[in-house]
Design a protein that fits this description.
heterodimer, A: alpha/beta, Spore Coat Polysaccharide Biosynthesis Protein SpsA, Chain A, 2 domains, two-stranded antiparallel sheet, 16% strand, globular, B: mainly alpha, Leucine-rich Repeat Variant, 3 domains, 0% strand, elongated, Glycosyl transferase, group 2 family protein (chain A), glycosyltransferase activity (chain A)
């Protein structure tokens, strides 16, 4: 290949990168604007919502809370205590011990004085063998299911089989719900019978004071990695999810806190076992199924039912988490590739799925290529200094603006971090995350892409800390 | 090309920054305005709420004077004072019940609060309309009926819900019936929210049920049959029971649930017949309801239902069987029988803490041998082998 041609290719590729960066940030900004309108709508809606009336109503839809647990001995007891004291008319907590190798099963049995019962199970979804079901007559809304290890999706499917109520919600064993979160997450099912899935907001508990399974004082963590994630979560939920919800194109309901109509989940085959992104996979399956069969349905995101979760505080755990998220995303997109730019799937096929393919899946590769190619092109004299500075300034500034925008939305709407000190700290981290943290997570995502084939069926674990030890 | 791109990047950063800065300013401005409004509200709050509380607390004994009315009307002309008046009224309606509630409604009409809310119903902002519907429902003024009925055709779910709930609270039978007759099963609201609306009706419920249970629309009709069951008024039982023989499955299920809720066992024979219904959902609900009614005429039919081809029917039948007095004794017969499905389901229900407790009590109070607990254990051991 001759040098002028190579030079031409490199220059063209660099142009492509900067247009790509422009386009992706334009889309993010559009999401931010849509999210602002959608949130403002939601805040106004709260004023006339009847949700308080339903807290004590017999007509509230009963709900089964599924808690899959695999080696969760550190947090499981606190988590169950917090769940069984939730403010909701009729619900059951189903803890599914997915063949834990630690003391999860015994800890739960001992703490809640459970006894094995021979409860019949209707296997509407195929799962690994259920070894036993445990109950305590004095805590009638707690069920412990002990089963052979089969992964998170398999555990959730077993929970669905055991459940008695028409709405199921999945909660990670390391998460804590606010007391009225359940009522708020179920309200869209009450308001509109077409609703098949609802996602709530996941917030980071690191730095908050937790007592007896409840967040009693919301604070910001000392750990820098957790701080960056707080800003990142605000951007992902208050901008991303709310923005997609405004377009009726939500593809992800977080596994940490989402509610589903049980019949709809069973109709699409439940959680997919051969993926590590079972939360996204279930939602994409629902979109595909209902659109293909021309059945009306609705998938909603509601921004105030809060689920508090622990964010990883070490780079090792963060890396494992991001790699897993990227693999889950790719797996789901590949499984439903027929939806890509397919008008049969309406806005999901024409907007949401292509966006996730072109920007969320391929995005990390383009971003890193940009960070490598553009300095190289500059060093070899193929690009001028102006262009070089332009690229870096643009990508950093866009990132800062978007983070600040998300922090603003938070302050404007739910204002969980009300003090000026908290606002300043969040804003500083919103700026700082663009100098290293963002690039690092992009690298982790690339690792996910590289290891996709090898790891798409594995399930990474993050070391949990007991909530009692948190401050 | 480079210059063009530079411009695009620069302009986009500039525009995005301006938007963010404007948002920051907007946020600050709004917080400042909110603070200013709150301070102003604080200043007049005591004056307005004190005056109003004083009137409200004596409303049962005294009539409101012209002077008081004049003062209250003057409050309504000022935005912040009007807000306080509205807040206080909503608080009274939430907390004061009985005859005082009618007087408060009259007062809200006299001072122009109802007209103010009605005016807001003309807004194009659907959030405003929905909120006004909710407030009008709390105030319970019949003046709002016509306007609310006009709004029933609006396709916005939030408005529709609040219109229906407002009509329910106002409690005018004819308006409520008219509103529901206009609806059909295409209504996007869930069944439970509509039952909640029906349950909340504050007028003559029997009139409403008698008019709406018989609608052809199975969805709306079922809602009122179920709500009638929640009302637990014996006067309605005969009419609900008619639907046990209805051709429509939904109405049949609604009637079963309603009678189960009411605990009225005069219709046990008809319910037992439904254990042979062609729809498994009807059979499953019938099995469950027989347990709720606690009538021993159902025991033998429930034993038969343990052999139903549908799991849910067997499961409900087993639960009902052991819950009815004398049912536990029939477990011996089931375990001596040939049907493995029937045996499995009854044993699994007896093995729950609730069921096992019943078995132990039975063994304690009866001298029959072998003991039931032993028969069950033997069956489980054989099965595991």
């Amino acid at each position: 290949m001759n040098t002028p041609l190579l030079k031409e290719i490199v220059i063209k590729f660099n142009y492509f990168i900067i247009y790509y960066v422009l386009l992706i940030n334009f889309i993010y900004f559009l999401q931010l604007i849509l999210a602002a309108f959608n949130l403002s709508d939601y805040i106004r809606k709260i004023r006339y919502s009847d949700y308080k009336k339903y807290i004590t109503s017999d007509n509230m839809i009963p709900i089964s809370i599924l808690v899959p647990a695999y080696n969760e001995e550190e947090t499981i007891v606190d988590n169950i205590k917090s769940l069984i004291s939730l403010n909701y008319p009729k619900f059951e907590v189903i803890v599914i011990n997915d063949g834990s190798k630690d003391n999860t099963l015994n800890k739960v049995i001992e703490e809640f004085e459970l006894k094995e019962v021979n409860q019949p199970v209707r296997y509407r979804l195929k799962t690994n063998k259920i070894k036993g079901i445990y109950k305590n007559i004095d805590i009638p809304n707690l069920i412990l299911v002990d089963k052979e290890n089969g992964g998170k999706a398999d555990a959730l499917n077993a929970g669905i089989n055991v459940s008695n109520y028409p709405i199921i919600t999945s909660i990670d064993a390391d998460s804590i719900l606010e007391s009225d979160s359940l009522v708020r997450v179920v309200m869209p099912f009450i308001e509109n019978k077409k609703t098949v899935a609802v996602g709530g907001i996941v917030r980071i508990a690191n730095g908050s004071v937790i007592k007896r399974g409840r967040v009693v004082n919301i604070g910001l963590p000392k750990s820098r990695i957790a701080m960056f994630q707080i800003v990142e979560y605000l951007r992902a939920f208050l901008t991303g999810r709310v923005g997609w919800d405004a377009l009726n194109s939500l593809l992800i309901v977080s596994g940490a806190f989402g509610a589903f109509k049980k019949d709809a989940a069973i109709e699409v085959g439940g959680y997919a076992k051969n993926t590590i992104g079972e939360d996204m996979e279930l939602v994409v399956k629902m979109h595909e199924y209902f659109l293909r069969n021309k059945r009306p349905y609705r998938i909603k995101f509601v921004p105030d039912p809060v689920c508090w979760t622990q964010a990883p505080e070490t780079l090792k755990d963060l890396r494992s988490q991001r790699r897993r998220w990227q693999i889950g995303l790719m797996d789901s997109l590949f499984k439903h590739k027929r939806m890509f730019f397919n008008p049969r799937y309406k806005q999901i096929g024409l907007i949401a799925v292509p966006y996730f393919w072109l920007f969320e899946m391929i995005g990390p590769i383009i971003e890193i290529l940009g960070y490598i190619m553009i300095p190289l092109a500059y060093m070899f004299g193929l690009l001028n200094l102006k262009y070089f500075i332009l690229f870096f300034a643009a990508s950093i500034l866009y990132g800062i603006l978007l983070s600040l925008g998300a922090i603003l939305l938070e302050e404007y709407t739910f204002n969980k971090y009300p003090t000026l000190k908290q606002l300043i700290k969040l804003s500083i981290y919103g700026i700082l995350e663009n100098f290293g943290y963002r690039q690092l997570t992009t690298l982790y995502r690339i690792e996910g892409i590289v290891k996709f084939r090898k790891m798409k069926h594995s399930w990474g674990k993050i070391k949990r800390r007991s909530f009692q030890s948190q401050k | 090309m480079v210059i063009c791109m530079e411009l695009i990047v620069l302009y986009s950063i500039l525009i995005f920054s301006i938007i963010i800065i404007l948002l920051y300013f907007y946020l600050i401005a709004e917080k400042l305005y909110e603070g200013y409004k709150n301070r102003k509200k604080q200043k007049v709050y005591k004056e307005v709420s004190g005056y109003l509380d004083d009137i409200a607390s004596r409303l049962d004994e005294y009539e409101v004077t012209h002077v008081q009315l004049k003062v209250l009307k003057s409050f309504m002309k000022d935005k912040i004072k009007r807000e306080i008046v509205e807040e206080r009224f909503l608080f009274y309606f939430e907390n004061l019940k009985g005859s005082i509630s009618d007087k408060l409604t009259k007062l809200a009409e006299d001072i122009g609060l109802v007209d103010y809310e009605l005016e807001k119903l003309n807004s194009k902002d659907m959030h405003k309309v929905a909120l006004s519907c909710k407030n009008l429902g709390e105030i319970r003024s019949k003046k709002a009926l016509d306007k609310l009925l006009e709004l029933i055709d609006i396709e916005v779910v939030e408005v529709k819900y609040n219109v229906l709930m407002a009509l329910s609270k106002i409690g005018d039978e004819e308006a409520f019936v008219e509103a529901f007759k206009k609806l059909s099963k295409t209504i996007p609201l869930s069944e439970r929210s509509l039952i909640e609306i029906a349950d909340s009706f504050e007028g003559d419920k029997i009139y409403v049920y008698r008019n709406l249970m018989y609608l052809e629309d199975e969805f709306i009709s079922s809602i009122f049959i179920k709500s009638a069951g929640n009302y637990k008024n014996i006067l309605l039982a005969d009419e609900i029971a008619i639907f046990l023989a209805d051709e429509n499955k939904e109405k049949k299920i609604a009637a079963l649930k309603a009678l189960g809720n009411m605990g009225d066992n005069r219709y046990v024979a008809q319910i037992i017949e439904l254990l042979n219904d062609e729809s498994w959902e009807v059979r499953a609900i019938a099995s469950k309801v027989l347990g709720q009614l606690q009538d021993n005429r159902a025991l033998i039919p429930l034993v038969k239902a343990l052999s139903d081809r549908e799991w849910y029917v067997r499961y409900n039948a087993a639960n009902s069987l052991i819950s009815i007095e004398g049912g536990i004794e029939l477990v011996y017969d089931v375990l001596e029988g040939e049907d493995r499905f029937a045996k499995d389901i009854v044993v699994s229900v007896l093995e729950t803490s609730y069921g096992w407790d019943k078995v132990l009590k039975y063994d304690m109070n009866n001298k029959r041998t072998p003991k039931l607990s032993e028969v069950i254990k033997k069956y489980i051991e054989e099965k595991d082998r």
